[in-house]
Amino acid sequence: MKKIAKLKLTPWMAWVGLLVTVIAAGVAAGLMVFVKGLSLTNLTDMVPWGLWITIDLSSIAISAGAFSLCAAVYLLGLKRYQPLARTATFIGLIGYTMALLTLLMDIGRPDRFWHAVVYWNRHSLLWEVTMCVTLYLAVLALEAMPIFAQFEWLRTRLPRLAARMERVHHYAPYLAIVGLGLSMLHQSSLGAVYGVLKSRPLWYRPDISILFIVSAVAGGMALTVFASMLSARITRRANIDDGLLERVAYFIGWILVGYLYFRFWDALSMTYTYEPGRTEGLRMLTSGPFAFNFWIGEMLLGAVVPILLLLRRRTRQVPFWRMLALLLVVGGVVAYRWDTNLSGQLIVLSYLPGEPAVAYTHYVPSLIEFASGAGVVAYGLLAFSLGVRYLGVVNHEAAAEEHFEEMPAREALPAPTGD
Amino acid sequence: MSETNLNRRDFLKLAGVSVAAIGGLQIYRRAEASSGGPEGEHQWAMVVDQSRCTGCDYCTLACRAHNDINPEISWNQVIETGAISGKQVYLARPCMHCEHAPCVDVCPVQASTYRPDGIVQMDYDRCIGCRYCEVACPYGARSFNWEAFTGRNPAVPQWGQPEVARRPRGVVEKCSFCSQRIDRGLALGLTPGIDPDATPACVVRCPTGARIFGDLKDPESNVSQLLRGHASFRLREDLGTRPRVYYLPPNGSPEA
Q1: Does B157 sit behind a cis peptide bond, omega within 30 degrees of 0 on the bond before it?
Q2: CATH number of B34-248, picked from 1.10.8.60, 3.30.470.20, 3.30.70.20, 1.10.10.10
Q3: What's the ipTM?
């Protein structure tokens, strides 16, 4: 009794304990999948891609803050945003590892995960995505080196290694270029994975790739700003420059306007002629089982409300409203990925002659899918929490890393305005 | 500072050289046909005569036995498609072995490839089980091994003996036009479509002769002659997949 009384439960410990519990349940579920196979899921030959694919797509999408903010800092020269790019890079590293963990469960032969790197099929969008994600993960790991060099334990035990890791930031501008290229490719081709399939009329259109990358940039930046603000409210180990975050939030509002514009024309162009499968799919989204997700989740809460909250100065300046808006943006991106992935599969087009009939199938994830998915999300939250606590990933007061002076091309860059 | 510059340059050089090397290797290695165009010596095709099909499902069972398929999975499906003047019509659906196969395009690891004779072939040792091909196939011709197929095959021995290895859990599988029978038959000097030992099991087992198999490259083959003499159609021709399975409609066939 006395021992238990002595062990003081701090909020930090409670939080970590909760996450570790969820992770443990997720690991158990994941191990069951490895041992027993995908029959534990509710996936079928009709709907082979479900909750896990949504987690893959979403975690990659909301990692897009890394490439966009790194490009802003190192390529556009907006170096004030460097501390935010640092946070985004860390989130990106977490997001991509989340996607890989989920993917490892989702493929039938996880022991062959490396095949795409060795056996190239250059016609396959999924091959291209796999290669880009693999390479970009390497870029993110390099970009995150200076962050890991902040680890106190490493600095005292292995100071030379820490210094070496710190020095990787000299390559930041080059890494930003490579990261931008790779992300532009795979963030959009994740949409094209769906968009090139002629047998799925609801997907078969070029716009998905554009919508995917635009929504990813909005969602990725939103998550970065939201996570920074939340950390600063919870712990003294995180400190933020609120003016900086407010400007990014304002920018996110405008990206959302662009996103909504693209989505409007995308949806409108699909409504004019009857096309078997596509028309039914649209109906399913707008008035069928997806209607709530579509109108409330994606449109109203995912785009319209955040646009209003973020573009109006009065609401944007209030941390609560801004954080709410940013969280809604992230939710909207996830809802969009879920709806896109499922709507195309739930509509089954007949191949029988003279029968343009459309059948509907259905899918609800199994408990195992939910548990392992929750484990992956909890891993992401834990990794970020540890980053805030031990690596200072949200720290806007730290001296900006000094690589601008060393950039040979510095003179060629246009002078950042407002500096 | 100059030191970092040099390092940077070296780093970029090294990165450039390695990327070029890997890319070059891949292009060098690339020998597979990029489309299932008619370049091979043979072009295998199947004709399904709907007026003869009685929906007995013998083809499906023979297929399960010869290819040792999980009873949960059908490489071949016989589907009821309604009735014409009171007579039930069936449509048997194997893999279409498309000339422009979406599955071959989308597979990230080239586990689905074109053989020179037009057969769309699966490499079960390469498949990673991502199921993109399942999502892409317009004909629902692909099945995933959700669980391992262990135990005895209920279709054996009544419907035939297994001729290929069972697929492991976690890979996608589909009809192969019984390529093992074709290859072995050709090696023995037999003619696929004529000699039963060189012909797909479903064709051999069909009690009404509703399935005909042969070489489109040979103008005198049974499939070439049938397609010359009768109206035929293929499934979802609008997609441009150019399937190698042709159907003789119920009312346009020789017996009708």
Answers
A1: yes
A2: 3.30.70.20
A3: 0.89
